[in-house]
Design brief:
The structure holds 2 protein chains of 2 kinds. Chain A is mainly α. Chain A contains 5 helices and no strands. Chain B is globular, with a radius of gyration of 23 Å. The chains are: A mainly alpha, B mainly alpha. The interface between A and B is large, with 68 and 60 residues.
């Protein structure tokens, strides 16, 4: 077990405890004769606390390994991807599906793939067209139009 | 007689133009997914869930998704054998001897035996499904709330213990899945649970956003993190026909693999990965020369490849007859049926015979399509690996994003999908298998309702689960399986501790 896994076990215990506390405080747990809406989540929360506690207790008897969670800077690219997705989602309804998709692809190709700009533009435009044809013409998905109207 | 009549009707459904086309498309896409490393059938099915309502009838969409599932088992062998690149988890074990055969110029024979074995085992699985499913569905009509609760509890236990290498992590994931499923309005009292005042959370999380996030997006984020260029050092395929000696060595392995796959696939929590591993260990045990294993033994390709296909087809038995998904992929197919307003279970055969028999008949057709797709077109599938991830990655991300948006024309689902993707990425980095979470999320409402109904029926008397014959038997099986797993885990831990103690002693001189 690594240090990260021990931390995960602690987080799981905290999560389980939070679920139990929440259900007891705000939901009706009820009784075995008349179970309430809080009973099932409370049991599951307690289950997480018990299992994660057992896991943590067992790991404390052993020497924990220390392999790094991320190798040197490997977290950067996934983080950029998630950030781009959040920006894309936030702007999709204002910019419209087509324009926001084009911008997303261009930025993805430049920042993540580090492609030359000519290839970036061609790939982005073609991929954007491909997606538009699939969603709008083939699957008839109602995509946001934005201020540009498409 | 009824079975044959049903199957005939099924063939008339499956051979309609649209269904035949979707069966072909599903099989082709499944093969492609199997070939491409990383993107497994569960991730692909989850990515396509938002599209199922655009495909017409529920039978059509399930025929398509089922094609992806069993098609991936065929495709996974191609790159495992030719490049030592398992495109699919169930083909990992094929890499060992398949790639060795390729290096010896026998890649063609390995591919042919894998495809023929897959075809035979797939057909065995479907024949079993044809004749076993109807009586099982009839038997399941006797199930009440306590029986369903006991059955699902048993299924979840097996899912936890068979899905990954750590039952503790699997159990945590299972509980977490149930808690996530509890977000929204309580189906019995209507009380809000875990909504924290957000109106958007009142309907709960959509299964699609969870599935695509923890399977699909997490896979893409992990690939982005690694970003290591795969070297496609393809070997020559060689002759695409097994010799008489190859056939003699592999025919019994195919037979055994088909049976192992069929029985492992039926068990909830079982699946193609476990079936292929079980088959490999059986073949090694019965081999005249076990030393050849790892050096290009054809039985070590034939057995596991047959087993994973047999398992993928037979896993439809618990899904269609009991409404219990046997693994993550069938859990997603279960969700696809629910999206279409169809509840899988004992009444499916009487209420929706076109879906039940249509899907089964399509599997017969799909197996033939896959044999044709995988033998002569093997070179085409290898070329697929040349598509750079730089294009594939963002297109998949956009595809899923729009898919999530189309669920309710609302960006909330996209944010939920991104959050689940990040959660799945972190969990998978910590070696948490997402399968149990997905399965418990989908089964949670059924488990909770059957538990609460049982307790109301018995006025709080828990012995209701033990005194009724079927639920009592299932509970007994549950406790036996739990005891066995705990004992095995305890033994393993003891061995590991002893090893660590010995290591410590030697280190300290």
């Amino acid at each position: 077990m690594t240090i990260q896994e021990r931390r995960a076990a602690v987080l799981a215990i905290l999560f389980g405890a939070a679920v139990v506390s929440y259900t007891i405080a705000t939901l009706q747990v009820g009784s075995v004769r008349k179970p309430g809406p809080g009973m099932f989540p409370a049991v599951c929360g307690a289950g997480i606390v018990a299992v994660a506690g057992f896991w943590l207790a067992g790991s404390l008897k052993r020497k924990a390994g220390s392999s790094p969670f991320w190798t040197k800077g490997s977290w950067k690219v996934p983080l950029i991807a998630v950030f781009l997705m959040l920006v894309y989602t936030a702007t999709m309804e204002r910019l419209g599906y087509t324009l926001s998709t084009l911008v997303f692809l261009v930025v993805w190709q430049s920042l993540i793939e580090r492609e030359p700009w000519v290839k970036t533009m061609i790939v982005s435009a073609l991929a954007c067209l491909f997606m538009y044809l699939i969603f709008v013409y083939l699957l008839r998905v109602s995509v946001p139009k934005g201020f540009v109207g498409f | 007689m009824e079975t044959f009549q049903g199957l005939l009707n099924g063939f008339s459904v499956a051979s309609s133009g649209t269904n035949l086309l979707y069966c072909f498309l599903g099989s082709m896409l499944g093969t492609a997914v199997g070939v491409l490393p990383g993107l497994g059938p569960a991730a692909t099915i989850s990515l396509l869930l938002p599209m199922v309502h655009t495909m017409g009838s529920p039978a059509t969409s399930i025929i398509f998704l089922a094609g992806i599932f069993y098609g991936a088992m065929y495709g996974g062998s191609t790159t495992s054998i030719l490049m030592r690149l398992p495109g699919e988890a169930a083909s990992v074990v094929t890499c060992i001897d398949g790639y060795e055969m390729s290096k010896q110029g026998r890649g063609g024979a390995a591919l042919a035996v894998a495809a023929i074995g897959s075809f035979i085992a797939g057909t065995v699985g479907v024949v079993g499904l044809t004749f076993l499913a109807p009586p099982l569905a009839e038997f399941a009509l006797r199930f009440g709330a306590p029986e369903y609760f006991a059955l699902m509890l048993f299924g979840l236990l097996l899912a936890v213990f068979l899905s990954g290498h750590s039952p503790i992590k699997g159990t945590i994931m299972m509980f977490a899945g149930i808690i996530l499923a509890n977000v929204g309005l309580d189906p019995i009292s209507g009380k809000e649970r875990f909504t924290f005042g957000f109106v958007a959370l009142q309907n709960g999380f959509d299964f699609v956003t969870l599935a695509i996030g923890v399977f699909g997006l997490s896979e893409i984020l992990l690939t982005l993190e690694r970003k290591d260029a795969v070297e496609y050092a393809t070997t020559k395929i060689g002759k695409l026909f097994p010799t008489a000696k190859d056939w003699a060595e592999s025919r019994w392995a195919i037979f055994r693999g088909s049976l192992i796959g069929f029985f492992v696939g039926v068990i909830p929590g079982g699946g193609a990965v476990i079936a292929s591993l079980a088959s490999y260990s059986v073949e090694k045990r019965v081999a005249k020369n076990p030393d050849e294993f790892g050096k290009g033994a054809i039985a070590a390709v034939a057995g596991p490849e047959s087993a994973n296909n047999g398992a993928s087809n037979s896993s439809f038995i618990p899904l269609l007859t009991l409404g219990i998904p046997a693994n993550a992929s069938t859990a997603l197919i279960f969700a696809a049926l629910l999206i279409q307003g169809v509840t899988p279970g004992p009444f499916l055969i009487s209420n929706n015979p076109d879906i039940f028999w249509g899907v089964i008949a399509s599997m017969y057709i799909g197996n033939v399509i896959l044999l044709i797709l995988n033998l002569p077109l093997v070179g085409v599938w290898v070329q697929l690996l040349k598509v750079p991830f730089g294009i594939l990655g963002p297109v998949i991300v956009l595809f899923t994003t729009v898919g999530c948006y189309s669920l309710a024309n609302d960006t909330f689902n996209i944010y939920a999908f991104i959050a689940f993707g990040v959660l799945g990425y972190l969990l998978r980095k910590l070696d948490f298998e997402p399968g149990p979470m997905i399965m418990s999320f989908i089964l949670a409402p059924l488990i909770e309702n059957s538990l609460r109904q049982s307790l109301l029926m018995s006025r709080g008397n828990l012995s209701i689960f033990l005194t009724r014959p079927i639920s009592g038997t299932l509970m007994a099986l549950f406790f036996i399986a739990l005891a066995v797993q705990l004992y095995v885990g305890w033994r393993k831990r003891k061995t590991a501790d002893a090893g660590q103690a010995v290591g410590g002693l030697t280190e300290n001189g």
